[in-house]
Design a protein that fits this description.
- It is a single chain.
- This protein has 70 residues and is an alpha/beta fold.
- The protein is 21% helix and 17% strand.
- Strands 1-2-3 form a three-stranded parallel beta sheet, with helices on one face.
- Strand 1, helix 1 and strand 2 form a beta-alpha-beta unit.
- The longest helix is centred in the N-terminal third of the chain and has 10 residues.
- It starts with a strand and ends in a 14-residue tail after the last helix.
């Protein structure tokens, strides 16, 4: 089973999740200036929380934990 962190802050949501070994999805939404930092590591960047549904559906994840496209 995969564990994901979803958030709009690279500083407070994405970077800590990646450090903890989680998969991360960054939602491009306005946030405080403090939260704006350069992204590091591998994470998905989506336009909306609604778009996460497709990524997180079990049938789109392979047995190796990779996303199945198409």
């Amino acid at each position: 089973a995969a564990c994901w962190s979803v958030g709009n802050s690279l500083r407070s949501d994405i970077k800590p999740a990646l450090r903890a070994g989680l998969r991360a999805i960054h939602i491009k939404n306005p946030c405080w200036d403090y939260e704006i930092v350069a992204g590091q590591g591998f994470y998905l960047q989506l336009e909306s929380l609604e778009a996460c549904r497709w990524v997180l559906l079990p049938e789109n994840i392979t047995d190796k934990g990779c996303m199945r496209c198409g």
